[in-house]
């Protein structure tokens, strides 16, 4: 029997690292009151029942609150802030699990991979689940090699697949149950596991009668996957939604088609010209940018078949099995000539930075050399970045030609969105131009995830209504944008709540400089080209702690026009020789991939101190040199702007501040009385104030307060009201007076004097 339930307020915690993993968080007091231990299973009951794993919430979480993600709220069918019944679930394993999802997901991942992705999650029939595995509390005896293989299998297009919601069609028992390695897992109407631990992607015979679902169950049993499936041979004709039909790929598709056409149909012409066509091609582009689609379209245009091998799979196999798979693929591609062998994610097999020779590298080099020499065979290897591929594959007679698939620009994203939403009933207020403007750095897979998430938001909004013609509205796309991030950001994007420069109190001069230095170069690059000037590369913000330097950058990010990569200076410093410089290079490489992008370097004095004045064996000097090279080196920095912030501008290397690097140094002073009033108005925007509270008079009294001090004052006044009564309807003047008496300026006068002296000297120089 289930224990007694506890009412908790389900609050969305969108920034949680365990979002979409089937984990919710409660305070230590709540956990103790319920007799829970971390990672115990929970039964959550809102408008419907679902399950989750319990974990400890951050220390500042209020008692009576259950932090959960949007997917859990969707399964509960309640909005954020609803009080639900929470109790410890009976710890019972799921006997079987039947799941459905998009066809491209069902066809790409075996039931074994699906089970490993679901392992340890607590589910109920009718739940929506994601492929993002929970790695916090796996069942005892879980094979780490199997889990590593599952992660590698899902890693191809990871963000796109993990954001796709799957639907649990059937789960036994009906109450929340835990997925284990003994759970029979299957796709609806397709393949399934046999309820035993299997090698990844390969069925292993179990006990007699144990394979598949019981007779008469739904879905119908299907034969197990072949123990050693050959490489996939696909018809070259592009399917709807892929290949030449997808906007934005026309340029690289034409380049690839020309190379294949020369090799397959005009080899004699090339020979008479004393040369040969290059049919060994490296296709480089961000994950999810449509490289596979592009190859299918180009091959179809020249009448060639396509044979695929996946680098992730080869790298996960033992050497003998991988060599056998390569050999089989080479035989198939030769027999079906003209044909193209596609090696997907070749950097998984032949990485550039490996200290040890990759086991398959020699075999791969020989295979590619033999196939490229064949007059009717081409080899196309795909990768997210050409610098990640071993140089041995780039030699003569191998992958000699490189074709780049870049990030789509705004016009291309608009075309892609129009294509992806062609069957979607869009409301009249939906402006795809606006959505395209708010999705810099998105590739086609990201846009597809965005469209899917918008549809989910629309369904969630209209499911309880009787709507004859449901539509997807602008608000649904806005909600989808809040949870969908470009793959290229890779977890380092700055959180961007509903915040713009209009929410920044006063600081008009500083905001104008930021608009001209940051927003204009990233939003209007064509205007700079037309006027024949190079846009600024960056700006240094300096001022006392708490004046709002980081807040300003978050406001720029909140406009939605650019991506923001946020890095603290100390995060890039490493004691290992060469690692700090490598971190700087990797940061700017990722920035170029995600352009247009703003790089925010907080505490830049820790990253770029004045050279020759540190005792770190020269690490700081080398990092400064790497940073200067990236900002003003041979490789152009286009559509990338750097904003650096510091409280100690005197410690920053002077070379960083010259024109062409951080072009502008902007002093962010303490706010004056008028600015403090504006800051207080912004800080109290969601705080009910008694009419007797005079913010203008309060701003005058807060002499020496920074923006952070003003926000702390408002927070202290609200807490004073709460201490007086949890049912307090508003913050009164008495509460504000009590808070003002207890709050003092946090800025050190000596530090403020030094900063003002630096600003005066910088203005006069």
Would you give the CATH topology of the largest domain? Answer: Rossmann fold
Count structural domains. Answer: 6
For the record, the CATH architecture of the largest domain stands as 3-Layer(aba) Sandwich
Q: What about the largest sheet?
A: 6 strands, mixed
What is the percent of helical residues?
25-40%
- Helix tally? 27
Strand order of the largest sheet: 2-4-3-6-1-5
User: Averaged pLDDT, please?
Assistant: 78
Shape: globular
Q: Whole-number radius of gyration?
A: 29 Å
Number of strands: 23
Percent strand equals 15-25%
CATH homolog superfamily of the largest domain: P-loop containing nucleotide triphosphate hydrolases
Which CATH first-tier class of the largest domain would you pick? Answer: Alpha Beta
Amino-to-carboxy terminus distance: 78 Å
Q: Which structural class best describes the helix and strand composition?
A: alpha/beta
Low-confidence stretches: 156-162, 196-245
Task: Name its key features.
Rossmann fold; 23 strands; 765 residues; 38% helix; Barwin-like endoglucanases; 27 helices; Vcp-like ATPase, Chain A, domain 2; 6 domains; alpha/beta
Secondary-structure topology with pairs:
Elements: E1 6-12, E2 23-26, H1 28-34, E3 41-45, E4 49-56, E5 65-68, H2 70-76, E6 82-88, E7 96-100, H3 103-108, H4 111-118, E8 122-123, E9 128-129, H5 144-154, H6 158-162, E10 166-172, E11 177-178, E12 184-187, E13 232-234, H7 250-265, H8 267-272, E14 280-284, H9 291-301, E15 305-310, H10 311-316, H11 319-335, E16 339-344, H12 361-372, E17 377-383, E18 401-404, H13 410-420, H14 432-437, H15 444-462, H16 474-483, H17 508-523, H18 525-531, E19 538-542, H19 549-558, E20 563-568, H20 579-594, E21 597-602, H21 604-607, H22 619-632, E22 640-646, E23 664-667, H23 673-683, H24 695-701, H25 707-724, H26 733-742, H27 749-764
């Amino acid at each position: 029997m289930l224990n007694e339930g506890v009412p908790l307020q389900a609050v969305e915690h969108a920034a949680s690292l365990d979002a979409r993993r089937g984990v919710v968080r409660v305070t230590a007091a709540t956990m103790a009151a319920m007799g829970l231990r971390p990672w115990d299973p929970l039964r959550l009951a809102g408008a419907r029942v679902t399950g989750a794993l319990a974990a400890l919430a951050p220390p500042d979480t209020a008692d009576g609150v259950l932090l959960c993600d949007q997917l859990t709220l969707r399964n509960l069918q309640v909005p954020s802030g609803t009080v639900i019944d929470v109790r410890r679930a009976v710890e019972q394993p799921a006997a079987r699990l039947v799941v459905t999802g998009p066809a491209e997901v069902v066809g790409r991942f075996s039931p074994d991979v699906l089970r490993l992705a679901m392992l340890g999650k607590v589910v109920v029939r009718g739940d929506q689940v994601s492929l993002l595995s929970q790695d916090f509390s796996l069942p005892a005896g879980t094979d780490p090699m199997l889990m590593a293989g599952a992660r590698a299998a899902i890693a191809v297009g990871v963000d796109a697949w993990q954001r796709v919601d799957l639907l649990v069609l059937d789960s036994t028992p009906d109450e929340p149950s835990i997925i284990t390695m003994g759970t029979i897992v299957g796709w609806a109407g397709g393949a399934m596991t046999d309820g035993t631990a299997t090698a990844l992607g390969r069925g292993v015979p179990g006990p007699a009668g144990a394979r598949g679902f019981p007779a008469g169950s739904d879905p119908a049993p299907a034969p197990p996957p072949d123990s050693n499936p050959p490489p996939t041979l696909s018809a070259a004709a592009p399917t709807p939604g892929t290949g030449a039909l997808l906007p934005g790929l026309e340029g690289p598709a034409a380049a690839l088609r020309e190379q294949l056409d020369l090799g397959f149909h005009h080899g004699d012409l090339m020979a008479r010209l004393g040369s040969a066509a290059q049919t060994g091609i490296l296709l480089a582009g961000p994950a999810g940018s449509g490289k596979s689609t592009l190859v299918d379209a180009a091959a179809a245009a020249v009448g060639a078949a396509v044979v695929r091998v996946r680098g992730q799979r080869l790298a996960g196999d033992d050497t003998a099995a991988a060599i056998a798979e390569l050999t089989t693929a080479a035989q198939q591609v030769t027999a079906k000539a003209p044909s193209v062998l596609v090696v997907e994610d070749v950097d998984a097999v032949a990485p550039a930075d490996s200290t040890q020779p990759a086991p398959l590298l020699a075999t791969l080099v020989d295979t590619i050399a033999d196939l490229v020499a064949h007059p009717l065979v081409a080899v196309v290897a795909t990768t997210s970045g050409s610098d990640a591929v071993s140089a041995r594959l780039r030699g003569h007679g191998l992958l000699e030609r490189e074709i780049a698939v870049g990030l789509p620009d705004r016009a291309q994203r608009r075309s892609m969105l129009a294509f992806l939403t062609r069957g979607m009933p869009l409301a009249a207020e939906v402006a795809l131009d606006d959505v395209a403007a708010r999705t810099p750095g998105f590739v086609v897979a990201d846009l597809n995830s965005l469209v899917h998430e918008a549809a989910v938001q629309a369904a969630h909004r209209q499911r309880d209504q009787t709507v004859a013609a449901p539509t997807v509205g602008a608000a649904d796309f806005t909600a989808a944008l809040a949870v969908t991030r470009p793959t290229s950001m890779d977890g380092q994007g700055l959180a961007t709540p509903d915040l713009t420069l209009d929410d920044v109190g006063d600081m008009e001069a500083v905001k104008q400089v930021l608009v001209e230095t940051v927003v204009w170069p990233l939003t209007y690059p064509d205007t700079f080209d037309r006027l024949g000037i190079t846009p600024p590369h960056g700006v240094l913000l300096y001022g006392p702690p708490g004046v709002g330097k980081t807040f300003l950058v978050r406001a720029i990010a909140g406009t939605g026009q650019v991506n923001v990569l946020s890095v603290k200076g100390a995060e890039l410093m490493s004691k290992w020789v060469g690692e700090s410089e490598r971190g700087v290079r990797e940061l700017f490489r990722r920035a170029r991939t995600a352009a247009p992008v703003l790089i925010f370097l907080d505490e830049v004095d820790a990253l770029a101190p004045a050279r020759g004045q540190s005792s770190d064996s020269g690490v700081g000097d080398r990092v400064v040199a790497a940073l200067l090279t990236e900002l003003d080196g041979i490789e152009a920095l286009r559509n990338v702007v750097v904003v650096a912030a510091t409280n100690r501008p005197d410690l920053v290397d002077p070379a960083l501040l010259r024109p062409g690097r951080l072009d502008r140094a902007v002093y962010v002073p303490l706010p004056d009385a008028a600015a403090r009033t504006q800051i207080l108005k912004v800080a109290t925007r969601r705080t009910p104030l008694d009419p007797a509270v005079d913010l203008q008079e309060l701003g005058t009294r807060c002499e020496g307060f920074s923006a952070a001090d003003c926000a702390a004052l408002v927070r202290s006044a609200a807490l004073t009201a709460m201490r007086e009564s949890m049912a307090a309807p508003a913050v009164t003047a008495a509460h504000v007076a009590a808070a003002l008496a207890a709050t003092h300026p946090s800025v050190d006068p000596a530090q403020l004097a030094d900063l003002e002296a630096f600003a005066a000297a910088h203005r006069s120089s």
